[in-house]
Write a structure and sequence with these properties.
The complex is a heterotrimer of chains A (about 280), B (about 300) and C (about 500).
Chain A (H helix, E strand, L loop, with lengths): L1 H30 L4 H6 L9 H14 L2 H32 L5 H10 L5 H14 L6 H26 L2 H9 L4 H12 L1 H16 L3 H6 L8 H7 L9 H21 L1 H9 L5
Helix pairs in contact in A: 1-13, 3-13, 4-7, 4-10, 4-12, 5-7, 7-10, 8-9, 10-14
Chain B lengths: L17 H4 L4 H30 L16 H7 L2 H32 L6 H13 L2 H11 L6 H8 L11 H29 L3 H9 L4 H30 L2 H6 L11 H11 L3 H32 L2
Helix pairs in contact in B: 2-13, 4-8, 4-10, 5-8, 8-10, 10-13, 12-13
Chain C lengths: L1 H20 L4 H11 L3 H11 L6 H18 L14 E5 L6 H16 L2 E5 L3 H13 L7 E5 L3 H4 L9 H5 L15 H8 L1 E2 L4 E2 L8 E7 L1 E6 H6 L8 H11 L15 H13 L6 E2 L8 E2 L4 H12 L13 H9 L5 E5 L3 H4 L11 E4 L14 E6 L9 H11 L2 H11 L6 H4 L2 H6 L3 H10 L11 H17 L4 H18 L5
Parallel strand pairs in C: 1-2, 1-3
Antiparallel strand pairs in C: 3-12, 4-5, 6-12, 7-10, 7-11, 8-9
Helix pairs in contact in C: 1-2, 1-3, 2-3, 5-17, 12-13, 12-21, 13-22, 21-22
The chains are: A mainly alpha (about 280), B mainly alpha (about 300), C alpha+beta (about 500).
């Protein structure tokens, strides 16, 4: 009997958590279907929608404001930077996991500590550097610093994954006469693929949300990323179009939500790998 | 398998796999590690040193050649009331937000460990906040907490609670910032602790049950100690990220009212990016870097050690 | 009292008939009418009634004389050929924080069609824009042929001698579209962003032109709810005492008697405090940075008094007014929760649009209140466009061609029509077709004409100084300190900043 009551209480609690977790998004979803004036005047907002208004909000965000283009820019920048990061980070992580060399631990923790660098400390120098080599307002101008931002994280995650692969496997390959690089390429990479997916996801999330460097490097609407597009909607000295802001919120949240359901297990792996086992 | 490898040069310990101990040609290390190290030198270390140099000058956007003023900016910083205000705000924010996140996150992990039906879906929703752009999070909460039409105040008034002045009073603004940070990042602590819970050895609990330990006793004497490494890790990680984050303040409160939510990061942003006072901003940011270096050398050692200890 | 009102109505009627029969220009009429307290709606109706019959005759005469004189001078220069610079690429650096870049983006195709010039728009956010502008102006080779700079930074950028003088172009009929009409730009805007005496480092002095007002400007007007004022038998406030009295009388649980920017926001100091300060006789600064005696007057009775006025109307303001920044005030006003407030005229677009406002039909605008004997006026915002000196001389005429095209009457009109961006030309503020649609325009134009740049803009520390003011004033409104100590704190911090900058010994 008591266990049953407890069970019931637990489900109530789960429901409460679910409501708290989803409510802000549902509120946003409701607001994204209203006219600006309705948001301000109807408290709480009613749940009948004028579909024409919904369509207008979304087409304003996706077409007129160019969110689709921003998403494309983000995808290009995030995709390229993540791939480059992986190419550079994977061999490094392999070295840290497998090779004993002098100062190995110091090197590793130095690289990892860059993960904690405050963005405000490097944004201006990075911007000045990017511009001085003529890459201001270009994809490479964003990709180059972003690779540096994600490298430490990816190295860190990949070390964890390499550590999990039994050493006997590469030993055997070495015996067969393969070189180190060959072992990494032919034997370990296929085994480490789940790890690379996790690392890529984390790197990608990090870059997708980056704001400060993008704010300075990007100068034109044509190159704006999703984060920048969202930020310009709410600049201080202007009335905020709350319906549009909410729609932008939803448009950016939905893909991430689907993504997060799909990648849940990778996220858990990524957060915990290499650190807590 | 390992024993079959002919080993002549390196002294071998009895249990470690041979390849791991073999002295590696430096060429291999350089080949594997080189690109990463060079890249970080070019795009992380160099900017960081550049920033250090800027912090010794009075560089402003208006005159692109700042002159060298030594420790001038740092001296000024120490006598700047806004700097101390921001340091205080940062300490309050990091301290409060991380403590709450640790407690809530651990509680959530224990709760989800009951594996109720349907809980995987709720877990998915819980992960969402930390994947969101902080700017969007800020705007979303500004809507939720809007004093005139936000749903939160409406709900509170409905049940007869007088809503506080969320973002308008100096007293409440920092609490609101903490609240939103907690909303966004508790899931992070939760996930780590939850993952650790999944791999705890079952036999320990079974043995304790046989010994007749009550549920509370098990929690305090067995579960929590076993979870401690994960909790520590999550807390350290969160503390550092909360310390350096700036976009949430940007999106939620822009440092106000009356600088009540101006953190060190935001102060550096404002001085550098809004007032174009690069030298001073760099000095502010560098004080943060120094604090972080101290913190990471002390704290990361705890985590790094764990890596080699891992099973 | 009633007699006075009757007299005033007579004068107004006289003014209306004068302008209708053409004895008065529209501009003179607006000036007269606002002095008489006619509302924006009435003024707009009259101007619309005048139709296109008389568009500032005195000014167009001046303009045509100017053109005549210089066409003789240029001699063989030939006639104006719109396609003269076809095929040239012009790059413009402008703000991405407002709608200007979107409006201009709409028109790039048309520019290409009419002049053959390709315009490439680069539009960063404000912070990066300022940084980038300073960098490219100093570079040996130009990265942009046109730069749109913030009026607050004219001294820093134009005063630094980085922009090409434009007088020769303006006077050359072969280079300037005869319909462009330089005289049509409001004097206040020209003095704020265009005219500069480099030799004496004085903004707005002399006749040397370095920038053209655009792509928008703006100042502050007084928004009030006509229905509420009428019901209470009140006239829109002409003085700050009347403003307070109306606030008290109109304040109810549903509608706040008045509002202002009470949050820690750029406009708390620049709009609400500064307007009250200068219209009660305050003078922000004395002396000059060059003589190292540039001293703030924040301790003056006017400074403390202006802040005290805000504190005094707190009981009649929205409950959360200390969190009200730009957005919150617009939101509350457009949902009918505010009876009156002074605000940037740029919000008139959304406030008068039934799609975004519940009070579109019941709101009206007039000039801001002022102390006895003071002209209603407020801060002047807005932007200028110029040609950097480092642009290749061969390309400069093409840059000028693009500049005149994007600052033309048609473009200025399009900006207002499509995005309700504040105009920078008199003709736009008084365009009958636009006024019929946006009745607030003449009042906004008048406010724009009377507005004054804030004195601290000549310093690089303008934004930092303004921030200090907003923080201290916000604290006073929250109740953490009184008006006098807030002003004293600003005075102290400003003096420190000015000393550090070498503007005060």
């Amino acid at each position: 009997m008591i266990r049953r009551l407890e069970r019931g209480a637990a489900y109530v609690l789960l429901a409460v958590i679910a409501i708290l977790g989803f409510a802000p998004f549902i509120y946003l979803l409701v607001l994204s279907g209203k006219r600006r004036i309705q948001i301000l005047a109807e408290v709480p907002p009613s749940l009948d929608f004028d579909w024409e208004v919904v369509a207008r909000n979304y087409s304003e965000v996706i077409q007129s404001q160019g969110m689709l283009g921003f998403a494309l820019n983000s995808a290009i920048v995030v995709g390229t930077a993540t791939i480059i990061s992986l190419v550079i980070a994977v061999p490094a992580a392999y070295a840290f996991s497998r090779l004993r060399f002098r100062g190995s631990n110091t090197w590793a923790s130095t690289i990892l500590s860059f993960r904690f660098m405050p963005p405000v400390a490097v944004a201006i120098p990075i911007f000045l550097m990017v511009r001085s080599v003529g890459l201001g307002n270009s994809y490479p101008g964003l990709i180059l610093p972003y690779v540096a931002f994600t490298l430490p994280l990816i190295v860190w995650i990949m070390i964890g994954f390499f550590d999990e692969i039994p050493r006997e496997i590469d030993d055997a390959a070495l015996v067969d006469g393969c070189g180190r690089v060959e072992v990494l390429w032919r034997v370990l990479l296929p085994l480490a693929r789940p790890g690379m997916i996790v690392a890529a996801i984390f790197g990608a999330i990090f870059i997708w949300n980056e704001f400060l460097v993008a704010l300075y490097v990007v100068n034109s609407r044509g190159l704006q990323t999703v984060t920048l597009g969202a930020a310009t909607l709410v600049s201080a000295q202007r009335p905020i179009d709350w319906n549009i802001a909410a729609t932008v919120g939803i448009v950016t949240v939905i893909p991430i939500f689907l993504f997060s359901l799909f990648i849940q297990r990778y996220i858990v792996r990524g957060i915990t790998s290499g650190a807590v086992r | 398998m390992a024993g079959a490898v002919p080993q002549t040069t390196a002294p071998a310990g009895p249990t470690t796999p041979v390849a791991a101990r073999r002295l590696v040609p430096e060429r291999d290390v350089a080949l594997l590690l080189g690109p990463c190290v060079l890249y970080l030198i070019a795009f992380s270390l160099f900017p960081l040193l550049y920033s250090l140099y800027i912090s010794f000058t009075d560089l402003r956007a208006a005159d692109s050649t700042g002159s060298f003023i030594g420790l001038g900016n740092y001296a000024e910083l120490l006598s700047d009331e806004f700097f101390w205000n921001a340091t205080f705000n940062t300490a309050v924010m990091v301290g409060a937000a991380v403590s709450i996140q640790v407690i809530l996150g651990t509680a959530l992990a224990l709760f989800f460990n009951l594996h109720l039906r349907g809980s995987w879906f709720v877990r998915g929703a819980l992960i969402l906040p930390m994947l969101l752009t902080p700017i969007v999070v800020g705007v979303m909460w500004r809507a939720l907490l809007n004093p005139d039409w936000g749903i939160v105040n409406w709900g509170m008034e409905l049940v007869g609670v007088d809503p506080p002045n969320w973002l308008g009073s100096t007293e409440w603004a920092i609490r609101t910032l903490i609240l939103v940070d907690v909303w966004q990042w508790t899931p992070f602590v939760f996930l780590i602790v939850f993952a650790r819970l999944q791999v705890l050895p079952r036999d320990v609990f079974e043995a304790a049950q046989v010994d007749g330990a009550g549920r509370l006793g098990m929690l305090s004497r067995i579960t929590l100690p076993l979870l401690m490494p994960a909790i520590t890790f999550a807390a350290i990680f969160r503390a550092i990220d909360a310390f350096r984050s700036f976009d949430l303040v940007y999106g939620l409160s822009y440092g106000g009212p009356a600088r009540a939510t101006t953190t060190l990061s935001f102060l550096a942003f404002q001085n550098g990016f809004q007032f174009q006072n690069y030298g001073y901003a760099a000095a502010t940011a560098y004080v943060m870097v120094i604090m972080l270096i101290v913190a990471t050398t002390v704290l990361l050692r705890r985590i790094a050690v764990r890596r080699t200890d891992a099973p | 009292m009633d007699q006075q009102r009757a007299d005033r109505d007579d004068l107004a009627a006289q003014a209306i008939s004068d302008v209708l029969v053409g004895r008065m220009t529209r501009r003179q009429f607006v000036q007269r009418a606002t002095m008489l307290g006619l509302s924006g709606g009435v003024i707009a109706a009259v101007i619309a009634a005048c139709g296109g019959a008389n568009s500032s005759p005195s000014r167009s005469v001046a303009a045509s004389q100017g053109v005549g004189a210089s066409s003789a001078a240029s001699g063989a220069g030939g006639a104006y050929d719109p396609m003269k610079y076809a095929g040239t690429k012009i790059r413009i650096l402008m703000t991405g924080d407002e709608n200007d870049h979107r409006a201009l983006g709409d028109k790039v195709g048309q520019l290409k069609e009419e002049t053959g010039i390709d315009l490439e728009i680069t539009s960063p956010a404000l912070g990066p824009l300022i940084e980038k502008t300073l960098q490219v102006l100093k570079a040996p080779e130009a990265e942009f042929e046109l730069i749109n700079y913030l009026g607050f930074l004219t001294t820093q950028q134009v005063g630094g001698g980085y922009f090409e003088q434009l007088n020769a172009y303006i006077e050359d009929p072969a280079e300037t579209d005869p319909n462009w009409d330089f005289e049509d730009f409001a004097d206040s805007n020209l003095k704020n962003v265009g005219i500069y005496d480099l030799e004496n480092q004085k903004l707005g002095a002399g006749s040397d032109v370095y920038g053209i007002p655009g792509l928008h400007s703006g100042s502050v007007v007084y928004f009030y709810r006509k229905d509420l004022f009428d019901a209470a038998g009140l006239q829109p406030a002409k003085t700050w005492d009347e403003f307070r009295a109306a606030a008290e009388k109109l304040h109810t649980d549903e509608v706040a008697g008045c509002s202002f920017i009470g949050a820690n926001d750029f406009s708390l100091a620049t709009v609400d405090w500064y307007t009250r300060f200068i219209t009660t006789g305050g003078q922000l600064m004395t002396g000059s940075p060059t003589t190292k005696d540039f001293k703030p007057n924040l301790n003056s009775p006017e400074a403390v008094g202006a802040l005290q006025m805000l504190i005094d109307v707190l009981p009649f303001a929205p409950e959360n007014v200390t969190t009200y920044g730009f957005a919150e005030n617009v939101d509350a006003f457009s949902t009918g929760k505010i009876a009156q407030m002074i605000f940037w005229s740029t919000i008139a677009g959304p406030v008068f649009n039934p799609e975004t406002s519940l009070v579109a039909e019941t709101t009206d605008v007039t000039p801001v209140p002022a102390g006895p004997g003071q002209t209603p006026r407020a801060i002047l915002g807005g932007w200028g466009v110029g040609i950097p000196k480092n642009v290749d001389p061969a390309v400069k005429p093409a840059a000028w061609r693009a500049l005149t095209w994007i600052t033309s009457k048609e473009m200025n009109k399009y900006f207002v029509e499509a995005y309700q961006i504040d105009a920078s030309r008199d003709s736009t503020f008084n365009d009958p077709e636009l006024v019929a649609k946006f009745p607030y325009l003449p009042v906004a134009g008048e406010a724009n004409a009377n507005a004054q740049p804030i004195e601290t803009t000549i310093l690089n520390d303008f934004f930092a100084m303004n921030d200090v003011m907003n923080v201290e004033f916000n604290k006073a409104l929250i109740g953490d300190q009184d008006a006098a100590s807030a002003c004293a704190n600003v005075q102290r911090q400003w003096e420190a900043i000015l000393r550090k900058a070498g503007a005060l010994a």
